[in-house]
UniProtKB/TrEMBL annotation:
It comes from Tetraparma gracilis. It holds the Pfam family Dynein_light. The keyword Protein biosynthesis does not apply. Keywords: Cytoplasm, Cytoskeleton, Dynein, Microtubule, Motor protein. It comes from the Eukaryota. This is Dynein light chain. InterPro entries: DLC_sf, Dynein_light_chain_typ-1/2. Transmembrane segments: none annotated. The keyword Cytoplasm applies.
């Protein structure tokens, strides 16, 4: 696992829920095992679409801000090290 601690910026997911824990675990694994941000976002999206049903959206980058419309209890914006991840369900 990565040594960088996750830093939550904004979330409406349950703090102690399985979905939030999955997001942190899967994102850390994606960062560790893939090279590009595109591959990382694809890895996270495929996991969430498979486990929690479609349609999940994932933005991965170094530094960005996002304003999105999402379903209740499905938004999570966080950093792992210098990598920002915005994960949400819409559609």
């Amino acid at each position: 696992m990565l040594s960088a601690r996750p830093s939550v910026r904004c979330s409406d997911m349950d703090d102690h829920g399985e979905m939030k824990a999955d997001a942190l675990t899967v994102a850390a694994a994606a960062i560790e095992t893939t090279v590009t941000e595109k591959e990382q976002s694809k890895h996270i999206k495929q996991f969430f679409d498979s486990k929690y049903g479609p349609t999940w959206h994932v933005i991965v980058g170094c530094d960005f801000k996002a304003h999105v419309t999402h379903e209740a209890k499905t938004f999570f914006f966080f950093y792992i090290g210098k990598t920002a991840i915005c994960l949400y369900k819409a559609g």
